[in-house]
Task: structure prediction
Amino acid sequence: MNSDGVAGGVPLTDGKWAGWSGWAEPHPDTFLQAIGRGYMRSDAPGKALVGLETRPGHRNRIDTLHGGFLAAFADHAFFGALWAMGHRDHVNGMTIDLTMQYLGAGKVGPDLIAEVELLRETGRMLFLRMVMTQNGAPVAASTATIRKAPSTR
Result:
């Protein structure tokens, strides 16, 4: 976290995530430790990719990615995408609603990639959607409304 309490990305130059920014390591004793470190990048205005390495703790009892984990990652990914798109003042915003559509069974091991698009921005709200994939196959889709963080005066 930086001095104003906002987690930020660190540009990566090595390994499979080179060219992406790594979300700051999760603060100890927070729910983000269950999700893991995210990776994000934006190659076009209003669009971003957020990646995550899946691990055994993300699975359910039938050995696929847990739906609750996918919803938690969606919420996390929307904010990572906002950061990558340059909306850094709103990383401390608040999720107003989040919908999920489960499209296929995700597997532990392959990276999970969320393709996020900012659909609309108003004075107080951001409207976003995403599709999550593993190896190009759809796993889930989501939409969210984010209330912007209050501006500091």
In short: The domain at 13-147 is CATH 3.10.129.10 (Thiol Ester Dehydrase; Chain A).
